[in-house]
Amino acid sequence: MNKDAYTLAEEIRRRFRDGDARLPVLPEAVIEVRKIVRDEEKGAADIARVIAQDATFSTTVLRIANSARFKTGSHEIRNLPMAIQRLGGRRTLQLMTAISAQLHMAVKDKSLQTLLRESAKYSLLVAVAAQHLAKLVGGVDPEDAFMAGMLFDIGVSAIICAVPDEVANCGSKQSHIILRQLHREMGGRLLTYWEMPDSFIALASHHGVESDDRPRENLIEIIDSVQFLLAGSGYVPPFDDIPEGIDALHYPPMQRLGLNETHLAAVEVELEDGFEEMQCIFSV
Fold first, then answer.
1. Which H or E run includes 152?
2. Of 106-110, 150-154, 242-246, which has the strongest mean pLDDT?
3. From residue 59, how far is each of 14, 32, 43, 251 by CA, in Å?
4. pTM
5. Helix 110-137 vs helix 261-281: crossing angle, to nearest 10
6. Which residues contact 165 (CB under 8 A, 6 or more apart)?
7. pLDDT per residue as tens digits for the range 238-267
8. At residue 221, does pLDDT exceed 60?
C-alpha cells in the first residue's frame, strides 16, 4: 500500500473514531420490523403493515418469497402477510437487512455508484454460491449462508457512503486499495451497529484472511471457499486477495469443510441459473 493510500486510510479511521464520519443507518422499516420480531404478541400481519409502506421492500420481499431459492410451497404468494408467513419473521428481517445493503445505500458520485454496483453484484454471486454449497455440505443453514454472502463485504458500502468525498477524490486505483485495507474493519463495525448476529459480525471482520485470531466458523469457511471457487471461474473478488498457485482442494477453508470435486462442480452449475434469478429479484 503506497503512502498516500495509507495516510488516507488512517484519516478515515480517525474520522470514524472521532465521530466525524457516521456509519449508514438502517431504514426505519427495518428498525420497526426488528421491534415486531422481538415482540411475542405480534406477527406477520404487523410486519406486513410496516413493509407495505416501502415499495422497494414490498416488491423485493414478494419476489423472494416466490423465488425457487426460498419457496417452500407450490402456490404463488400474492400478498405480504402470506410472504412473511412463508419466510418467517426472523428471515424476513434478515432479508430486509440484505435488501438495505443492496438497494438502500446510495451516493451521488458516478464513480462511487459504479463501485457500489460492483460490490453488490459480486456479493449476490457469493450469496447464490454460498447457499448452494451450504445445502451440499451441511453445518450451516443455507439461508444463513445466502445472507452471509449478501453481507460479508458490506464494509465497502459503509466506507463509500460514510466518506464519499474522500474515496471519490483519491481515484479508482487508490480507492480500491483503501477499501481492501478497511472493509473488514468497517464491515464488522457496521454489522455490530446494526445489531446483527455475532456469526455475521465475525464473518465481515475475518473473511479472506488466514490468521491466528480467525474464528473457526463454518460460515466464514463457506464464504472463503466460494470466493476461491469464483476466482477460478473468472470472477475475481474486487476487495479480497485470493492466494495463487494452490489447488482448490488444498485451499485451507475448503479442506476444513471437507469439499471434493463433486461439490465444486455442483456449485458452478448452480451459478448459471441461480445468479440470473437473484439479479431479477434485486433489480428494483
1. none
2. 150-154
3. 39, 18, 20, 39
4. 0.87
5. 130
6. none
7. 899 898 889 999 999 999 999 999 998 888
8. yes
Q: Is the per-residue pLDDT at 190 higher than 50? A: yes
Report the amino acid identity of residue 58.
Answer: S
- Which fold would CATH assign to domain 108-281? Hypothetical protein af1432 (1.10.3210)
Q: Which helix (H) or strand (E) holds 274?
A: helix 261-281
**Residue 265, C-alpha cell as written in the block:** 462442480
Among 212, 198, 97, 206, which Cα is nearest to 157's? Answer: 97
> What's the grid cell of residue 235?
470472477
Closest by CA to 86, choosing from 121, 47, 132, 126, is 47
Q: Look at residue 9 in the predicted model and tell me its pLDDT.
A: 87
CB 103 within 8 A of CB 282: yes
CA distance 62 to 80: 7
> Dihedrals φ, ψ of 237, to 5°?
-60, 130
Residue boundaries of the structural domains of the chain = 25-104, 108-281
